[in-house]
Amino acid sequence: MSAVSEANQENDLCREMLLQFVEQRGDQGAQLLSVLTRYIRTCAYRHYPLSAEDQQDILQETAIKILKHARQVQGNCNAWLFSVVRNEYIDRLRQLQAKQKVFEPDADGTLVPVAEETTPSFALADQDLYNQVDCLERVFDEIARQPTGAVDMLIYTDYVQGLSNAEIAEHTGRTIGAIAKRLSGLRERVWQLKQELC
């Protein structure tokens, strides 16, 4: 099976998973919720960690967005899902930032907000998140342009989602050793491209 047909098959499976969730058939969304939970954990691991309650809220908000927009998805379905989760994650960080305002009494005893530079802020985390996302988009665009890009992106996406080498090997029809070698090369290539492009 060619890299392009594997990527198309992966995209078709993702779309079917979305439709099963929307139409409440098959596993009624259990597989989709598992994928979304992995994406939320990825955001928590790579960025600012949120409480379990906040992560559950993100999962629910993402599910609502999927119910509204699943039939309109164009392009890479998994990338769309991840971007919805990432955007919900950023929105939750902003909500928390707004709640973190600190007030102190002034000379008259009136409560006034403390200057932002002295209050806890997620602004740097937000900017860092945007910078990292922008960087990774450039890196993965470069990887995808290579002759083996579609397969490499499929393997790396499975890796980031937390699948084991054995699961990735089964999914792609390769040996576990080949997957381990490919992932090692991909991690090194991602690191190199981050140095060059970011």
Protein architecture, described:
The chain is mainly alpha-helical. The relative contact order is 0.10. Helix 2 packs across helix 3. The protein is globular and about 75 Å long. A two-stranded antiparallel ribbon has the order 1-2. It contains eight helices and two strands; from the N terminus they run ααααββαααα. The protein has two domains: 1-99; 113-198, no CATH class. A hairpin with a 5-residue loop joins strand 1 (103-105) and strand 2 (111-113). The model has no long low-confidence stretch (mean pLDDT 81). 72% of the residues lie in helices and 3% in strands.
Query: Runs with pLDDT <50, length 5+?
Result: none
User: What oligomerization state is this entry in?
Assistant: single chain
Number of strands: 2
| Element string (H = helix, E = strand) | HHHHEEHHHH
Helix content: over 70%
Alpha-beta classification:
mainly alpha
Q: Could you report the average pLDDT, rounded to the nearest whole number?
A: 81
| Biggest β-sheet strands, sense, barrel | 2 strands, antiparallel
Q: Report Rg.
A: 20 Å
- The strand order across the widest sheet is 1-2
What count of structural domains? 2
Distance between the termini: 34 Å
Figure out the total of helices. 8
Shape: globular
The fraction of residues assigned to DSSP E strands is under 5%
Q: What is this structure, in a nutshell?
A:
With 198 residues, the chain is mainly alpha-helical. It has helices at residues 3-23, 30-46, 52-69, 77-99, 123-144, 149-160, 165-172, 176-197; strands spanning 103-105, 111-113.
